[in-house]
Amino acid sequence: MMNEMKRICFSVLLAVAFVAASAQDVMRKEKDGTYVINTTTLAQDVDGYNGPTPVEVYIKKNKIVKVVALKSQEGPKYVARVKKEMMPKYDGMNVKKGTVQDVDAVTGATFTSKAIQENVKRAVAYYKKHK
Fold first, then answer.
1. What SS3 string covers the chain?
2. CA angle (34 as vertex; 104, 16 as ends), nearest 5
3. 65 C-beta neighbours (distance < 10 Å), count
4. What digits encode the pLDDT tens for the residues 61-101?
């Protein structure tokens, strides 16, 4: 009976530690006050053309500082186009009012663009709920 209680307590502690670690993996606060939201687990169900397209969204004083593409299976030339033509459009966008607006998708990289848009929306929603 005592061993069973120990095993249950250990399982509960392990689950709590996992949830806390997962939350840290999603959002962290830099020393300068910038929040960094990583969508690797937050939007793992959001696919571009070749699978998940995680990003990190940097937010400071309720404005997006930048969006950074993380490693994915998307084609390098499509990711490069999205990085150059779409991601900078988020810079300076205010996140305090409602949801973040969509920026235009990049022609020829529509699946990747739409996935990035959804990742940014989820990151901003997470920031607003947990900051």
1. CHHHHHHHHHHHHHHHHHHHHHHHHHEEECCCCCEEEECCCCCCCCECCCCECCEEEEEECCEEEEEEECCCCCCHHHHHHHHHHCHHHHCCCECCCCCCCCCCCCCCCHHHHHHHHHHHHHHHHHHHHHC
2. 100
3. 18
4. 999 999 999 999 998 988 899 999 999 999 999 997 656 66
Cα(120)–Cα(54) distance, rounded to whole angstroms?
A: 9
Q: What is the pLDDT of residue 20?
A: 43
pTM strictly above 0.70: yes
Instruction: Round to whole Å and give the CA distance between 115 and 82.
Output: 11
Q: Which residues, 6 or more positions from 16, have their beta carbon under 8 angstroms from its beta carbon?
A: none
What is the per-residue pLDDT for 98? 53
pLDDT computed for residue 19 by the predictor: 43
Tokens of 65: 């500082």
CA nearest to 34, candidates 66, 10, 68: 66
